[in-house]
Amino acid sequence: MRWLSPPPLLNIVDDRGDGPVVVLIHGIASSSVTFQNLIPLLESGHRCISIDLLGFGTSPIVEDCDYALADHARAIHRTIQSLRLREPFTLVGHSMGALIGARYAARWPRHVAKLVLVSPPIYLSPGELSDDLDRGVMDFYLRAYRYIRENKGFTLQHAAIVEKFLAIPKAMDITERTWTPFVKSLQNSIESQTTVSDLAAVKAPVEIVYGSMDEFSAAGSMKIVARLRGVTVHRVAASDHLIGKRLARVVAQAI
Question: Residue 225 and residue 218: Cα distance in Å, rounded?
């Protein structure tokens, strides 16, 4: 696997408020608009820094990149280093950003005071699960993602359908321009993830917040991460994958 050397600086979309630092990273094919309901709840008492991920939003697209968790995490790390933060911060990741956040906290433990994962799509190989229903759900997700990335014409032509499937309206961006980071991130950061082992290595307290109606939450893997040391799970009724107002309030409390 190729690593970017050096990783590019990402675009810092927003830096507002004063107090303990909260770094926010969004999910696949999205942007920092993901946190529009959360930042107003935090900015009076926190410094909120929103970063667009490598290949998405307003950050650079690098063609010769695997867009694996390591690539995303290293780009986040270089960007945070450029801010010269003096104290450990709270790292908040949504969707794929949660998977990247887990890798970052495992790799650079001294930088992270708390890790908050929002709507994390944590997946394992179906063969690693004992329950038949859990295995079936996991297999469905992985097959669906594989179909999306292996059928470019269909995916681009039916971007609105994919947007509805991924449940990130208006914050979604799947076009010819973003196709490479989208498909590679899907394959190398979501389908081929290491999140459970990353979480097992995280030293900071971990808060996981997800909705009872989250379209991408796999119950089988959530049962496993809930048993990990230092992990607290919050299941929010009547909330889906997005950070709506109800979910935002619970995330703000977790922070």
Answer: 11
